[in-house]
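JOB MANIFEST
job_type = single_chain_structure
chain_count = 1
residues = 66
[input]
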Amino acid sequence: MAEARERLEKVKKMVEEQMAIIRIERELEAKKQAYSDVQKATGINVDDAGDDEGSDSAPEDQPVLY
């Protein structure tokens, strides 16, 4: 009987943790959407900021030779 109670408590804890994860994921998605909406409203496109294609700067891990 005690083993069944312990398993039930573990399952209950796992369900609570999973629900917390789902809640946090939803909050994160809402924040991402709000951030994206603000970017669109202001005309900022941050998604392209990380692209290094066509960049004139030297890669960080290679020395610049003169």
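[summary]
The helical segments are 2-42.
The radius of gyration is 24 Å.
exit_status = 0
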